[in-house]
Amino acid sequence: MSQNIFVMGLGNMGAALAKTLLGKGYPVTVWNRTESKATPLLDAGATLAHAIADGIAANEVILVCLNNYEASRRGLSSCSDLTGKTLIQLTTGSTHEASNLQDWVTQRGGRYLDGAILAYPSGIGSPGCALLVAGHEAAWSSAQDVVLTLGPASQYLGDNITAPATLDFAVIFPTVTLMLAVVQSIHALEGTGVSIETYADMIAPIFGSAGHSIKALAHSIALNDFSQTEASLAVWQAALENASNSFRPGPKNLDLVDAVSQILSGAVAGGAGSQNLAATIQYMRDSPQK
Ligand code: NDP
Question: Deepest in the core among 49, 74, 130, 135, taking most CB within 10 A?
Fold first, then answer.
């Protein structure tokens, strides 16, 4: 019989996780700070938990997908007994946060998997979708069916609890940096007489499967419409900041990370947090060289 699942957090990603599990026949309970976001999932058969403790008490597998680990820890703080439960943290975070949360969960009798999702919400459940997870073997055994339902191409990385967060950084950073480099290039081309479409058609094939995202960015800039997104600028900014904290403090050079973070933070501070990555062009236009 399918395990009962509790999904904490119904943003773009959490809602996609819950929807996919419901579609595969799992009994799913959901919780979100803004309860109204649960409505489409309740219509699809989910049960609503008004309190996190109620959702945890009634379910065996707990999926957490919020905007940071701090929000997760605050939400979980009311739960003192996690005996028989497997908690899978899918929020983007640092290696330190992964280790600390594993300690916290195991001290309360629970099993813990730390995870990173290498997909957009629309890709959850599709054959190529991969989650990277690590944790004790017993935690993996207890929840591997759920993980493989969400990401059939998922990988269990053994008990090195920091591996998903480290690898997540190494995926997030080049992805967002490529996208910002394209936005910066389009910004550089503004006023030169070269059209955005010409540039996008030229560069997209060079980057293979990322070409689709490059074209979408360019299209968004051409239309001056930054509203379509599965991963908002605020989510990218927080993801890069949280993931790169794995290396802070420390001896590694993070100059390029800091430069990219500064652009994302500046765009979010300028009010573009809910928009897509292409909206960083507004920040670039508003902050010329000194
Ligand atoms: P959203 O911004 O869409 O949703 C954020 C979620 O966090 C909402 O449920 C929100 O609740 C909740 N939240 C924020 N602050 C708090 C708080 N203080 N207390 C309780 N809940 C809070 O983000 P996504 O769903 O896109 O991303 C969630 C996680 O998944 C992030 O760590 C992200 O890096 C990761 N991820 C996202 C991907 C994507 O493409 N979107 C891809 C891979 C990973 P409320 O609705 O009340 O605001």
Answer: 135
Whether residues 64 and 175 fall in one domain: no
17 lines ligand 1 (CB under 6 A): no
Position in ligand 1 atom list of the atom nearest CA 9 = 9
Per-residue three-class SS string for 1-32: CCCCEEEECCCHHHHHHHHHHHHCCCCEEEEC
- Do residue 62 and residue 181 come from a single domain? no
**pTM metric for this prediction:** 0.98
- Residue 13 CB less than 6 A away from ligand 1: yes
Same domain, 222 and 132: no
Same domain flag for 137 and 65 = yes
Domain of 251, in residue numbers:
165-286
pLDDT tens profile 16-50: 999 999 999 999 999 999 999 999 999 999 999 99
Among 12, 19, 48, which residue's Cα sits nearest to residue 149?
19
**Distance from C-alpha of 161 to C-alpha of 96, rounded to nearest angstrom:** 10
Q: Dump pLDDT digits (tens) for 164-197.
A: 999 999 999 999 999 999 999 999 999 999 999 9
